[in-house]
């Protein structure tokens, strides 16, 4: 099983791209943070992200979804625990034990492919119930994601702002064309990034 991550700034079109890949028959896994926030808001917790436990809750749902059975040879994930590491850093939360354990697990088990699709921003960021940041803040968030993935030893494949069909074509070409050497297992990562 080859598991690929889509990451990038909030509002960059990751979810739209993920749904387009699903329509083409690929196995996909939705973003965990959006669901964690929606569950909390449904019971009256307006700003769950202010709590340090927030990132552990995301990591737990990411683990649950990643471990769910999948019969297809390729699976796309809207974010990974490395994104959750970037989120903890962005929010100024210490790295909690659950997230640290999940990061250790995915690195040791080489759960995700070493090539990560970095979905570039569209030049704006529309707020939603789960996404309450400005475009300037989203660019800082984007930078921290780049840093986290590089620190964990991943290679980023740029997916520029473009129509969805072009983005899908780029991703499918990258996973199916011999010209882009995507090794079957991730390389050994750098030392665990400090936090």
From TrEMBL:
Every NadR/Ttd14 AAA domain range: 3-167
The record's section on Pfam families has: AAA_28
SUPFAM superfamilies cross-referenced by the UniProt entry:
P-loop containing nucleoside triphosphate hydrolases
The record, for InterPro entries, names: NadR/Ttd14_AAA_dom (IPR038727), P-loop_NTPase (IPR027417)
Q: What is the protein name stated in its UniProt record?
A: AAA family ATPase
Which species is this record about? Kitasatospora acidiphila
Organism lineage: Bacteria, Bacillati, Actinomycetota, Actinomycetes, Kitasatosporales
């Amino acid at each position: 099983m080859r598991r690929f991550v889509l990451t990038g700034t909030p509002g960059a079109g990751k979810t739209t791209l993920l749904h387009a890949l699903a329509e083409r028959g690929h196995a996909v896994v939705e973003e965990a943070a959006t669901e964690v926030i929606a569950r909390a808001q449904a019971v009256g917790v307006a700003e769950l992200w202010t709590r340090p436990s927030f990132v552990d809750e995301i990591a737990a749902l990411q683990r649950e979804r990643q471990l769910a059975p999948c019969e297809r040879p390729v699976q796309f994930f809207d974010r990974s625990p490395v994104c959750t590491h970037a989120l903890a850093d962005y929010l100024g939360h210490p790295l909690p034990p659950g997230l640290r354990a999940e990061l250790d697990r995915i690195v040791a088990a080489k759960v995700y492919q070493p090539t990560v699709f970095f979905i570039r921003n569209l030049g704006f960021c529309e707020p939603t119930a789960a996404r309450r940041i400005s475009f300037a803040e989203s660019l800082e968030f984007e930078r921290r994601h780049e840093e986290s993935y590089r620190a964990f030893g991943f290679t980023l494949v740029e997916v520029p702002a473009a129509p969805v069909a072009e983005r899908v074509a780029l991703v499918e070409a990258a996973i199916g064309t011999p010209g882009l050497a995507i090794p079957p297992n991730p390389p050994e990562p750098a030392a665990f990034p400090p936090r």
